[in-house]
Amino acid sequence: MGLDDAKHQVDTAFTRRSRRGLAHENTFGGAPSFLRRSYTKDLAGVDLAVTGIPFDQAVTNRPGARLGPRAIREASLLQVFDPPYGWGFDPLSDFTIVDYGDLAFDYARVADFPAALAAHISTILGAGAGSIALGGDHYITYPILRAHAEAFGPLALIQIDAHTDTWADDDPARIDHGTMIYKAVKEGLVDPARSVQVGIRTENPDTMGFNIIDARSVHEQGGARVARRVRAIVGEARAYLTFDIDALDPAYAPGTGTPVWGGLTSAQAAILLRDIAGINLVGGDVVEVSPPHDTTGATAVAGAHVAMELICLWCWTRRGRAA
After folding, report:
1. Could you give the CA distance from residue 160 to residue 223 in angstroms, rounded to a whole number?
2. Rounded to an integer, what distance in angstroms lies between the CA atom of residue 219 and that of residue 90?
3. 3-class secondary structure, 133
4. Which strands sit side by side in the sheet containing 280-287, from one edge to the other?
5. What is the number of alpha carbons within 13 Å of residue 54 lying toward its C-beta?
6. Phi and psi dihedrals of 52, rounded to 5?
7. Taking the CA of residue 111 as centre, how many other CA atoms within 13 Å lie in the half-sphere pointing to its CB?
């Protein structure tokens, strides 16, 4: 869709003639689907589905991440006019990417949430599409990993985060955004030896076998070198990438439930995500964007950029394997 077409387009989230291509509708008007992709529940012919998971009932500290998907979608409209910088291709034109909307669930039946989310993602994967999820608190990664492991087998996990989220928790009924990676390992969903946690800066002595590159290492070594280490660890394994926005220093992402100083800069995160291109990414998420704690909207902007990079990484994988 070109600029001339934009004169005749309103709410391209619903009226777009093609599911591919950039968008030139006013960023300040219309329905804010992610990157102005078509809102649809029809997955026929879809390569990649972006979906929102507005859940924050597993938080330890400050809530508000249930509002993250809406804020990330709105912030993403700032990126719809041009292809993503530095990638050398336009995933929005080369792939069929849609906004699958949000997971619908009964907020008063929290115990039913994990199964509902796993089924939601399994529906997307079962249709032959990939999934990028917008959180929501970090607990959502656990049911999403279940769906991906069912489809692909045990995964390499790339976790960019201030916290390891591997605190011991052997109660299957507990829903906690600080223990779900522990449970994912115990359940055999991820292989710690091929997995890596980047940006860590909180104490948890039991690493559960994960490779850990803490925040100080990123500052000392730089994003490019860390990216090479990540690629060496993951190798050719099928990988899932989860990006907790608190991996960024609060100066760059104050709108999150558990901010920790000394974190990554936006520039370091951008280099890291760009330079791990070539991993076999099968899915990803960005979580813990909590708009009530950031009146500037900067955290949502960061979340939208992370989601775009995840899309690029997923599409890069498909381009490489199709070549």
Report:
1. 12
2. 30
3. strand
4. 97-102, 48-53, 130-135, 280-287, 238-244, 156-160, 196-200, 211-214
5. 16
6. -95, 140
7. 3
Give the CATH superfamily of 3-322. Ureohydrolase domain (3.40.800.10)
Phi/psi of residue 238, nearest 5 degrees: -65, 130
Measured CA to CA, the distance from residue 102 to residue 133 in angstroms comes to 9
HSE, side-chain direction, 13 A CA sphere, residue 167? 13
Secondary structure class of 42 (helix, strand, coil): coil
Q: Is 280 exposed, middle or buried (0-12, 13-18, 19+ CB in 10 A)?
A: middle
- Map tokens 């507990």 to a residue: 174
Residue 149 vs residues 25, 26, 219: alpha-carbon distances, Å: 38, 40, 33
Q: How far apart are the first and last CA of the chain?
A: 27
Give the whole-angstrom CA distance, residue 17 versus residue 104: 27
Q: Please name the residue that has the structure tokens 């989230």.
A: 13
Q: What are phi and psi of 63, to 5 degrees?
A: -80, 180
134-178 pLDDT, tens per residue? Answer: 999 999 999 999 999 999 999 999 999 999 999 999 999 999 999
| 3-state SS string for 158-219 | EEECCCCCCCCCCCCCCCCCCCHHHHHHHCCCECHHHCEEEEECCCCCCCCCCEEEEHHHHH
**Digit-coded pLDDT (tens) for 75-125:** 999 998 889 999 999 999 999 999 999 999 999 999 999 999 999 999 999
To which residue do tokens 């559960």 refer?
208
- Spatial neighbors of 322 by CB under 8 A, at least 6 apart, are none
Give the start-to-end residue ranges of the domains of the chain: 3-322
Write down the pTM of the prediction.
0.94
The letter for the amino acid at 179 is: T
